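Lab channel / #folding
Pinned by the channel admin:
"Please post every new chain as: sequence first, then the structure tokens as a reply. Keep commentary short and put observations after the output so the thread stays searchable."

First post following the new format, from NK:
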Amino acid sequence: MEHRTVGDVMTHHVATVRRDTSYKALAALLAEHDVSAVPVVDDAHRVLGVVSEGDLLRKESGQPDPEGHTPSVWMSPSNRKRVRAEDASGLMSRTVFTARPQWSVVEAARMMDRHHVKRLPVVDETDRLVGIVSRSDLLRVFLRADRAIREEVVRDVLRRTLLIDPATLWVDVEDGVVTLRGQLERKSMIPIVERLCRSVDGVVAVHAGLTFAFDDTRTDLEPPAVRPVTQPRHVHR
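Reply from TO:
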């Protein structure tokens, strides 16, 4: 089974900035490329941080309003520092979570969900930036056609991986939902079939109405009786 990787779905050409990129240049770059954040890189193209629209707005929100109120006095020290910042080095978030090109989209999605981030810079084995992957990039796997998903279930899951004759099962895919009907030889195969189908890229859910010919999960069945082996009798003449 072939799973889509971060390298398959990421954006390869990434707009980047340097530490000394000015606030105004940052705002112009985000607007020009229609992105919500850009990585900050050094001369070796290693990621130092990320500047987002939120970082720029935080500085804006800390400015005095027309009535002279200054909200920045209630901000944390780190945010007050961002309000005073004039370039990327002071505005950027230095805690950066990254992904590798060989990661599955599931691994990247878990990283984003765990750390509540919207994008991950993608770095190679030398930590050089090679791309960026966003939430929308990961969701593209769910745009796969139902026909393509069914073909992968039948060809890769049933025939190649589990050595099951696809003709013995009824497989249907609609809106990414896989429905399985039919009988398997052993009961223990049912959760395996469901799990492997669920792991196919683009599958939203699996509805399995599978039956079995033999329940190999029961432990209360008595083993078949073993007949003692008798030695042949030698007849002396």
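NK: The domain at 6-141 is CATH 3.10.580.10 (CBS-domain).
TO: also worth noting, The first strand starts at residue 37 and ends at 41.
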